[in-house]
Write a structure and sequence with these properties.
The protein is built from twelve helices and 20 strands. It is α+β, with helices and mostly antiparallel strands and about 425 residues long. The protein folds into two domains: about 230 residues, FAD/NAD(P)-binding domain, CATH 3.50.50; about 110 residues, no CATH class. Strand 15 and strand 16 form a beta hairpin. Helix 10 runs antiparallel to helix 11. The longest helix is centred in the last third of the chain and has 39 residues. The two termini are about 25 Å apart. The structure holds flavin-adenine dinucleotide. The site of flavin-adenine dinucleotide has 32 residues, from helix 1, strand 9, helix 8 and helix 9.
Length: about 425
């Protein structure tokens, strides 16, 4: 079976490794970027994703390059603890939870693909621009990197095309341009990393703030903290950029573009009085070399991910607000299930139907839950905290987290007991 993967991000590379592990070796990854570079900031991988990467033989690499997250804590904007729970091994999982630089994770996957499948498997500078269905396969259009028509444009035939080409997927667009219209709740997210030293346990993930302004922090290397600042509206910071670096574009920023840099010191003004004895938030934000601006973007759950012999995976299928540590995780789960189904089903079409049936409902539920987590949950919890009803806020957060783990596939009991998606595994 000849398989083309559009996109060499976390989802596409995890798919290549999963297919190879499942005995499907005729795989080619086409990546639009000129090279695989370590871009982005941190991602957090809960145990359901770590299990899959471990079963792909990457457990040691994760342990070497990631920080095992030991707890998740919520604090109010005065720095007072609302609620905390253990994470990873300490919460009874058979696999840890890791925080890691997104680019490092991508590099770990890329290195494993090259080591196991050969250098020629990933071809960079290759932008998939669309596909045409064939009787039993697909004809894939590949443009030069700029997307402009050129002499190097060509078509490649394959038995299966996997669209792992991110939130602005060309494969999805080609299947049906009406699908996946990007939407936003108007919130902006700013991201950065700062060598600001250890805080709390040295492996804590904290969520500070309320429905108006929130900061998430976790270390991705000893002493290097990844931060995300999320706010629904301007907070008077959009001035004073230097060197042509933007200071915040608010609602005019382009949806789905991860590469827009902003001036960190301007962003730090949003949290200028958030100096606690356990973490100096404004100093940490201002101390970042560079920060990245990303308007919250997702799309409504799709009703189908499979279009003949083209199947969507990862953000192309289910881009979601980056709450709950599930963007990369759900992509990794897609990759594993798709490979497993292709290996165990009698034919490709049956496998694609089974893949969609297994993964679409779960990822769609996570997309919708992330929207709720962005809005309703924090409104409710913050109202209770402001009225000093901390017991109510704790109960609410505990229930929300437990429900989220169940629907995203990482409550400890189910995950620990679930059969493996490794072919021949338990
Ligand atoms: C540059 C970048 C930075 C990011 N930073 C963060 C971050 O800091 N925090 C976070 O939570 N998430 C971040 N993300 C998103 C996160 O990686 C994904 O939500 C998650 O990992 C799911 O992965 P994916 O493989 O589905 O999509 P992505 O990680 O977006 O990967 C898609 C890949 O497809 C390639 N591609 C796009 N179009 C085409 C095409 N037409 N043909 C061929 N290749 C194509 C892209 O270059 C990319 O390598 C970032 C994504 C990108 C691309």
């Amino acid at each position: 079976m000849n398989i083309l993967i559009a996109g060499g991000g976390i989802g596409g590379l995890a798919a290549a490794l999963s297919l190879n592990a499942a005995g499907l070796h005729e795989v080619q990854v086409l990546e639009a970027a000129a090279e695989i570079r370590q871009v982005g900031v941190g991602v957090n991988l809960p145990p359901h994703a770590v299990r899959e990467l471990t079963e792909l033989g990457l457990g040691e690499a994760l342990a070497q390059h990631g920080i095992p997250t030991s707890e998740l804590s919520y604090y109010d904007r005065r720095g007072k603890l609302i609620w905390a729970e253990p994470r990873g091994l300490g919460a009874g999982y058979r696999w840890p939870q890791y925080s890691i630089h997104r680019g490092r994770l991508q590099q770990i996957l890329f290195d494993a693909v090259v080591a196991r499948m050969g250098e020629a498997v990933v071809r960079t500078g290759q932008r998939v621009s669309g596909f045409v269905p064939m009787a039993a396969g697909v004809r894939v259009q590949v443009a030069d990197r700029s997307g402009a028509s050129s002499a190097t444009d060509r078509t490649i035939e394959a038995d299966l095309l996997i669209g792992a080409d991110g939130i602005r997927s060309a494969v999805r667009q080609s299947a049906d341009p009406a699908l996946g219209a990007l939407a936003t709740n108007g919130w902006m997210m700013y991201r950065g990393t700062t060598r600001s030293g250890r805080f709390l346990s040295g492996s804590s993930m904290v969520i500070i703030g309320d429905e108006h302004l929130r900061v998430v922090v976790y270390p991705i290397e000893p002493g290097v903290n990844n931060w995300l600042l999320v706010r629904p509206a301007e907070c008077g910071t959009d001035q004073g950029g230097t060197d042509g670096v933007a200071t915040g574009q608010g609602a005019t920023a382009e949806l789905g573009n991860w590469n827009r840099s902003v001036e960190p010191r301007a962003i730090a003004q949003c949290v200028q009085d958030w100096t606690f004895d356990w973490l100096d938030v404004p100093a940490m934000v201002a101390g970042s070399d560079i920060a990245w601006e990303y308007p919250m973007a997702d799309f409504d759950p799709l009703s189908q991910w499979v279009f003949g012999r083209a199947a969507l995976l990862g953000d192309a299928a289910h881009a979601m607000y980056p709450f709950g540590s599930n963007g990369a995780s759900q992509a990794i789960l897609d990759a594993r299930v798709l490979a497993w189904q292709l290996a165990v089903q009698p034919d490709i079409d049956a496998a694609l139907v089974a893949y969609q049936a297994e993964r679409l409902p779960v990822a769609s539920a996570v997309q919708l839950a992330n929207r709720r987590q962005a809005n309703d949950v924090m409104v409710k919890v913050s109202a209770m905290v402001r009225q000093d009803e901390h017991a109510g806020a704790q109960a609410e957060l505990k229930e929300v987290e437990a429900r989220y783990k169940r629907l995203a596939g990482f409550d400890a009991e189910t995950l620990n007991a679930r059969a493996s998606w490794s072919v021949g595994g338990r």
